[in-house]
Amino acid sequence: MSTRKLFTLILVSFVVLGISTADAQTGTSSASGQRIWGYTFGDFFWKADGDTARWGRGEYMGTEKGMMGGSLRRLYLGYDNQISSRFSTRVLLEANPGTTMPNGSYGVIIKLGYLQWKAPDFLFYNQQFSVGYFEYTGSLYLRLLEKRLTVETMGNYKYKGNGRHSSIYRGFIGYEITRFRFGFEASKIHDNLSTSAGMISQNPFVYSIFYAFKMKVMKQDLEFFARYDKFDPDTDFSDSKIYPNDLRFVYDQSLLILGVNYNPVPTVSIIPNIYINLYDDKRAQDINRKNDVVLRFTVYYRY
Q: Are 95 and 110 in contact (CB under 8 A)?
C-alpha cells in the first residue's frame, strides 16, 4: 500500500472514531437485541535490526533494516442478533493485509457466521460453511471462580477434496483480576502439502504465554504487558522430508513482545511496544539468520 493511501485510510479511520465515540463501548444497538460493532488497529514501525531474508514466517522478515512505515493490521465489522435469552447469532467481516486486492485496496472476508446456545456456566456454538468442501467447527467455553478463570477449547476439521484434509485443536486458559491478567494458549495443527515428491503431512504446533499488570504512573493508569510465542512449523520435521520450495518450513520461531498500553479514553489504546522475533534452523546445516527487532507504535480503537 502506498504511503498516501495509508495515511488517507488512517485519517478516515480517525474521523469515523470521532463520530462513533459516544456509542463505542457497546456498538450501535437496537431494542430488538441487534448490534453492529467492530474494531480497527494498526502500527507505525521502525525496523532496528534484522535482514531481508524471507526465511521463516516473521511479520517483518522481508523488511530492510532501518526502514520506517505503517500498516493497518486488522479491521473487524460485526453484526450480532440476540434471538432469545439462550440463542444468538453473529456474522463477522474482516479486512487485513492478507485480503489485499491487486489494485492495493483491502478486500473483505467472512470471518465468522454462527448460531450460539447458552446455558448456565457454559457456551456451545457451531458453524458450517459451504464452499465446495466440508468444514465443521465446535467450541466449549467456561467461566469459573466468579468469572475470573476462563477455559476454552476449540476443534476444527476441514475436508479439502482429493483425499486432503486439515484439522486444528486449540486450548486456552486465562485468569484475570482487577489489575492482573495471565493467559496460556496452545494449538496443534495438521495439514497436507503438495510437493514435487507428492503429498506430505505437516504438523505445526504453537503456544503463547501472556502476562499483563496495571499500575499508576504520574497519575495515569498504564498496563504493562509481555507476550511470548513459540512456533514449530512441523513437529515431524526431517532433513529427508521434501518440503515446498519455501524456507518457512525449516525455521522454529520465538516471538517476544514487550509494551505498555495507555487509554486516553476507554475505547482507544495507544501502545508503544518492541517486537523481537528469533529464528532457529531445524536442519543439520543450521544456517543462521539475524533476528528481527522492530520498534512499534500501535493504535487500537473500538466502535
A: no
Tally of residues, the chain: 303
Is residue 239 within 8 A of residue 283, CB to CB? The reply is yes
Q: What angle do CA 187, 192, 194 make, to 5 degrees?
A: 140
Where along the chain do its domains lie? Answer: 3-302
Contact 252, 272 (CB under 8 A): no
| CA–CA separation, 131 and 138 (whole Å) | 18
Q: How far is the C-alpha of 218 from the C-alpha of 18, rounded, in Å?
A: 27
Candidates 3.40.47.10, 3.50.50.60, 2.40.160.10, 1.10.287.3510; correct CATH number of 3-302? 2.40.160.10
* CA gap 293, 46 in Å, rounded: 9
Whole-prediction pTM value? Answer: 0.72
SS (H, E, C) the chain: CCHHHHHHHHHHHHHHHHHHHHHCCCCEECCCCEEEEEEEEEEEEEEEECCCCCCCCCCCCCCCCCCEEEEEEEEEEEEEEECCCCEEEEEEEEECHHHECCCCCECCEEEEEEEEEEECCEEEEEECCCCCCEEEEEEEEEEECCCCEEEEEEEEEEEEECCEEEEEEEEEEEEEECCEEEEEEEEEEEEEEEECCEEEEECCEEEEEEEEEEEEECCEEEEEEEEEEEEECCCCCCCCCCCCCCHHHHEEEEEEEEEEEEEEECCEEEEEEEEEEEEEECCCCCCCCCCEEEEEEEEEEEC
C-alpha distances in angstroms, 253 versus 50, 205, 232? 14, 11, 7
Enter the C-alpha cell of residue 297. Answer: 507504535
For the segment 136-195, what is each residue's pLDDT rounded down to a tens digit? 556 676 777 777 899 999 988 887 777 778 889 999 999 999 899 999 999 999 887 776
